């Protein structure tokens, strides 16, 4: 359970209030505001605030005086044109602010995306909760034999049980020591900023994360992708769902041109042209390395 009853009550109270504004709002996003959507075993994603909608992208692109939406089809077409031609700054006019609760090892991957504004829960000031990410049994996978940066089939039987036991016991023992060190009962109590150093990377942290739509889509392109680690991918997929409701035209263009599209190198494009003319092209005659050819075949054959 990621939220305490008090936290739930705070969110309900916030959702019960409404404010009138002259600013544009996105009906699709209003329904999600403040709600915590669970991710992993103790994590969540929730929208704290947002600015702009599809019309704001159009308005910025046209530098117009009005709301932007005059002809719905033109607006969608313009957004698709902007996405197709990497005209990115109109997408930067929309902003999203999220509250995210996530394991520290996921946060380390996430924070590499430098084009966002972050404020993290302070473990110098506050005591961390006893909450650790323990993978579901089907996510407890073996090291991949083909990809050093990936995982293979799920661990089975006694090995799976032993790994789960180790993860749980280590987390609990470290937290017991953490509590023991910071306790001020009968001792001075170690500073929180020092005591936290023995906590494992599967402990949960929280942050507020604000980013513009252009850089958010870049994040989602990389982290909702099948190559991303499962534990960050599930957060990205949850955010994709929110973005699809917030800016439906922009999200559809993103799905079509970024997530579902592919970049072809000049040699790869030349191969496609030769194939269309009926030539049988192989890796040896393609001018591409084995790795490039493998990836090219992946693009041409589609998902397995
Ligand atoms: C599948 C996967 C595997 C990865 N493996 C590793 C790994 O093994 N080791 C590792 O260290 N990282 C790894 N990363 C992280 C990756 O290298 C990037 O750091 C991360 O994805 C952030 O991307 P970004 O820099 O484009 O994003 P952002 O920091 O959000 O930047 C967005 C864009 O802004 C521009 N930009 C931002 N800051 C600068 C700057 N200072 N100078 C110039 N341009 C800038 C760039 O165009 C950049 O693409 C991996 C990422 C993925 C998705």
TrEMBL record:
Keywords: FAD, Flavoprotein, Methyltransferase, NADP, Nucleotide biosynthesis, Transferase. Its EC number is 2.1.1.148. Its cofactor is FAD. It catalyses: dUMP + (6R)-5,10-methylene-5,6,7,8-tetrahydrofolate + NADPH + H(+) = dTMP + (6S)-5,6,7,8-tetrahydrofolate + NADP(+). GO terms for biological process: dTMP biosynthetic process; dTTP biosynthetic process; methylation. HAMAP family: ThyX (MF_01408). This is Flavin-dependent thymidylate synthase.
